[in-house]
UniProtKB/TrEMBL annotation, chains A, B:
<feature type="domain" description="FAD-binding PCMH-type">
    <location>
        <begin position="39"/>
        <end position="218"/>
    </location>
</feature>
<dbReference type="InterPro" id="IPR006094">
    <property type="entry name" value="Oxid_FAD_bind_N"/>
</dbReference>
<dbReference type="Pfam" id="PF02913">
    <property type="entry name" value="FAD-oxidase_C"/>
</dbReference>
<dbReference type="InterPro" id="IPR036318">
    <property type="entry name" value="FAD-bd_PCMH-like_sf"/>
</dbReference>
<dbReference type="GO" id="GO:0016491">
    <property type="term" value="F:oxidoreductase activity"/>
</dbReference>
<dbReference type="InterPro" id="IPR016164">
    <property type="entry name" value="FAD-linked_Oxase-like_C"/>
</dbReference>
<dbReference type="InterPro" id="IPR016171">
    <property type="entry name" value="Vanillyl_alc_oxidase_C-sub2"/>
</dbReference>
<dbReference type="Pfam" id="PF01565">
    <property type="entry name" value="FAD_binding_4"/>
</dbReference>
<keyword id="KW-0560">Oxidoreductase</keyword>
<dbReference type="InterPro" id="IPR016169">
    <property type="entry name" value="FAD-bd_PCMH_sub2"/>
</dbReference>
<dbReference type="GO" id="GO:0071949">
    <property type="term" value="F:FAD binding"/>
</dbReference>
<keyword id="KW-0285">Flavoprotein</keyword>
<dbReference type="InterPro" id="IPR004113">
    <property type="entry name" value="FAD-bd_oxidored_4_C"/>
</dbReference>
<protein>
    <submittedName>
        <fullName>Glycolate oxidase</fullName>
    </submittedName>
</protein>
<dbReference type="InterPro" id="IPR016166">
    <property type="entry name" value="FAD-bd_PCMH"/>
</dbReference>
<dbReference type="InterPro" id="IPR051914">
    <property type="entry name" value="FAD-linked_OxidoTrans_Type4"/>
</dbReference>
<keyword id="KW-0274">FAD</keyword>
Length: 455, 455
């Protein structure tokens, strides 16, 4: 360790006391997130911030010593944005877990960043409200992390993305300055919208130390759930697109391709599905949910499929098991690189066809699930060993390029992080990337905030 | 005119030909927007851009000569953001009026910035869709201008603000660089969200030359409209808050205070309303609209009011006449300065009480209407003469400070422009204002973009 790093550590210990950890096990854990990847070396230290003041203190020392900072929530990201390597200072807000306020009249919550998404949702439901953004990791992911990554989820298709749920943010900038962005009001256009800019900024602009988020009234009526099988992925993609084009707004519309479905069946020790068989899960909520689900089912039938509709919550849970078993089924077979491309909904079938071609060309199986109502696909690459093999990277790159060619984007909801950084310039172009870097410099002139990620 | 200004004009004429106007009548018109204010002097010239290339050409010359640029849409803004004074080059996109595409399957439209909001909405409705942002000026306001100001409207309460409707933007930066921000996809988190940053940036970052916007399926079922009277503004504010807190999501929830109502009645030559009488307009859409409206009416009755409910479109139009006559009624009595504060919905009654106190203290009547479902108030200051009298500015300032004290904001949907710039630092603070200026400099290092507005 250099003399300056050593001096920085001494200052951090003085400023933070027990909130600073040098525990090797903790440092080792901070090398990784849920992407399956890890940094080559462990970071310098971890700040387990208890308050915003701890974050301020940590960033002041970091700025004084030009120490690279990696903000970290619950560490459940899928793009490597929280992976911390050599000489990095990890600033974790995972222990700032208080729900400060649930304001039922104004339908908002004020929370610390370490609050787990599912816990906020549960607290809101006690007052007839819910927190709409529902990433698949909602039981483990933190509010701060999901805002920093712009995380999506199943219900975005009806209730919008994370950006739309964030009203205001408390942020600590690289030099330790605290700022409040946004409003507690439903509307507000005072100055540039820095709240929206922070959402999805992946720790490159500052550390989120508080959030005021919108809550939504729980819809009246039952939830109707359809689990359907269609004869091919093309038929299922076409049915999804038709359901959305009909004006229906399902609360979830999920597609599981044949390869994924076969893997799930193996994992659950079920009989193998029919060749080409593709699974579609549709949930409708609100007082018209029964009618809406009948309409969706009719569209599925018109596309050669059929399914079962239930309004019984326990029965619906069983139908959801197939979708929920996807990630465990993948992880049971090896390490998984999860891609996250999005295409216009109408191009979903073409994107599946492209993935099939890429799979054949590169000799790599690519089981894929999709938030079909949003045109957001998760092609999965399963591999063995500690690092992603080059043929897998090449196939992943081809998938990304195919999405771009269909008018799509690199990442719908996971973020760029470290793992997708290599593709960024292809989507944004050199001049926009330079502009994004200038904007980052306006927040972080020394470039210490998450320097390995995104920009 | 200096030699350099003269050289700049020569280059503009060469580059733009007939798209450049020096017509004194047009230059005089560009001094003003719909705020009732105007710049002291006329601008240098107006570019009536026909294409994005015209904008590029204009901004290259502007950058070469450090010519201040005022982007302009339809000129219907209410905060002076498009008012152009001495030596300014106006870049108008009002003549870029093509709807390039309505994609019914993906529920989006691709438009040039000069398309009028109501025209896009009408074109979308032919395909069973609509464009949700509906500023009161929708019949005259352009898409580009409403995006640049982050304009709101009546239906934000159910369908969200303009930011949520914008998927992608084509932008020309100060130096003439063209950039594409955002995605055609429903989701996307690739890099910093510069689309959201552009919304509400009021011409300070670049010129919007194209937009990809989200369309929404027209809800099935009838629209139910309630026109109600309540005995006081406090009762009406409480009823509004209770309607929203009940979980109902009306498509519009508008409040007209006693002073405004009396002015409207005078303007329409109706009998004077009862003293303290406050008008509430509620619209519910969707298949449950009748039930929802009955629930809203029950809440109004529980607050001492009563009203009439109709599902007949022609009858509803008549009920809407009162709300629609507000601005004409104000303008009939003099020049109007329209404020635009927003407060948390639950503080609406307190805000009305504060306005009443400020009115008495300053000896200035302040008729006020509110998008009550959003807590967004428009206090109006009517005056005679060409400039806003100082007592009016002082009262407007007191209104703004009262909103801030209630956890509110300076502007809910009109923007800061030139007229509210003086208040900006009070809401943002010095350090955030400095940060916003650094971000502007990342887009516009010479500071030529709308230099009189906002920052």
């Amino acid at each position: 360790m250099t003399a300056d790093r050593s001096a920085a550590l001494t200052e951090l210990i003085a400023a933070l006391g027990p909130a600073l950890s040098l525990d090797p096990t903790e440092l080792d854990a901070a090398r990784a997130d849920k992407s399956g990847q890890r940094a080559a070396d462990a970071p310098l230290a971890i700040v387990h911030a208890r308050t915003a003041d701890d974050v301020v203190a940590a960033l002041r020392v970091a700025t004084a010593h030009r120490l690279p900072v990696v903000p970290r929530g619950a560490g459940t990201g899928l793009a490597g944005g929280a992976m911390a390597g050599r000489d990095r200072l990890v600033v974790s807000t995972a222990r700032m877990t208080r729900i400060l306020e649930i304001d039922a009249v104004n339908q908002l919550a004020v929370v610390e960043p370490g609050v787990i998404v599912a816990e906020l949702d549960a607290a809101a439901r006690e007052q007839g409200l819910f927190y709409a953004p529902d990433p698949a990791s909602r039981a483990w992911a933190s509010i701060g992390g999901t805002i920093a990554t712009g995380a999506g989820g199943l219900m975005c298709v009806k209730y919008g993305v994370t950006r739309e749920a964030v009203l205001a943010l408390d942020v600590v900038l690289a030099d330790g300055t605290r700022e409040r962005f946004g409003h507690r009001t439903a509307k507000g256009v005072t100055g540039l919208d820095l709240t929206a800019l922070m959402v999805g900024s992946e720790g490159t602009l500052g550390v989120i130390v508080g959030a005021t988020v919108r809550l939504t009234p729980v819809p009246r009526g039952e939830t109707a759930t359809i689990a359907a099988m269609l004869p091919s992925v093309v038929a299922a993609a076409a049915a999804s697109s038709a359901i959305m084009a009909s004006g229906l707004r399902p609360a979830a519309l999920e597609l599981i391709d044949p390869l994924s479905l076969a893997a799930i069946h193996r994992h659950l020790r079920l009989e193998a599905p029919a060749a080409g068989g593709t699974h579609l899960l549709v949930q409708c909520d609100g007082e018209q949910s029964g009618d809406d689900a009948e309409r969706a089912l009719a569209i599925i039938r018109a596309h050669g499929g059929d399914g079962r509709l239930t309004t019984d919550p326990a029965d619906a849970e069983r139908l959801l098991t197939v979708r929920r078993s996807f990630h465990p089924a993948m992880e049971a077979t090896g390490h998984v690189l999860i891609e996250d491309v999005a295409v216009p909904r109408s191009r979903l079938a073409e994107m599946f066809a492209a993935i099939e071609r890429i799979s054949a060309d590169h000799g790599v199986p690519i089981p894929t699930v999709a938030h079909a109502g949003d045109g957001n696909l998760h092609p999965n690459f399963v591999y063995t060993g500690d690092t992603v093999p080059e043929p897998v990277w090449r196939a992943a790159h081809a998938v990304f390029r195919a999405a771009l060619a269909l008018g799509g984007t690199l990442t719908g909801e996971h973020g760029v992080g470290v793992l997708k950084k290599r593709h960024l310039v292809e989507e944004l172009g050199e001049s926009q990337l330079a502009l994004q870097r200038r904007i980052k410099a306006a927040f972080d002139p020394l470039g210490i905030m998450n320097p390995d990620a995104v920009l």
